[in-house]
Amino acid sequence: MIGGSYGGFTATWLAANHSERFKGICSERAVNNLVSEEWSSDIATAFRTEHGPSHIEDVDVYASHSPIKDVRKINVPMLLIHSEEDWRCPIIQAEELWVALKLLGKEVDFYRFAGENHELSRSGSPVHRVQRAEIILDWFAAKLA
User: Fold this and answer.
1) pLDDT value of position 52
2) Which of 5, 19, 40, 54 is catalytic?
3) Can you give the residue range of the structural domain that contains 25?
4) pLDDT block averages, 10 residues each, the chain of length 145
5) Cα angle for residues 40, 42, 43 (degrees, 5° grid)
6) Could you tell me the CATH number of the domain that includes residue 90?
7) How many domains does the chain have?
8) pTM of the entire structure?
9) Per the residue annotation, which of 27, 55, 82, 118 is the catalytic one?
10) Helix (H, G, I), strand (E, B) or coil at 24
11) How are strands ordered across the β-sheet holding 78-83?
12) Which residues 6+ apart lie within 8 Å of 114 measured at CB?
């Protein structure tokens, strides 16, 4: 299973809530923690339209809707791909999930792309798009073998 951006959010959520269905999950450029997303994104406060209060007024609303809150339940190998210059979903989103999974002794691989932004898979440099595709194909080939 693979998802990017909102699909990455969904991939991380599925990893925590339906791990038994997958042999591996790739989460790309995902929002994993809505609290830190609201503090660091170029679209900060955008989620207020969905949650009502701001993250300052009611942090618990944001925390409760964040896939990272269920990180302990992730029992499927995860591949995280993120761009260092992604201001939409800053790289801290992948870093937080990676650190949590590593601390819990879970299987996780993390690839970060320097000089790329939220559009890596669509309009990133050709070299990085090829590298990304090879990473994903190789990773899933190993997990599905």
Assistant:
1) 66
2) 5
3) 2-144
4) 96 93 96 90 69 76 92 97 96 98 98 98 97 98 95
5) 100
6) 3.40.50.1820
7) 1
8) 0.93
9) 118
10) coil
11) 2-4, 25-28, 78-83, 108-113
12) 84, 85
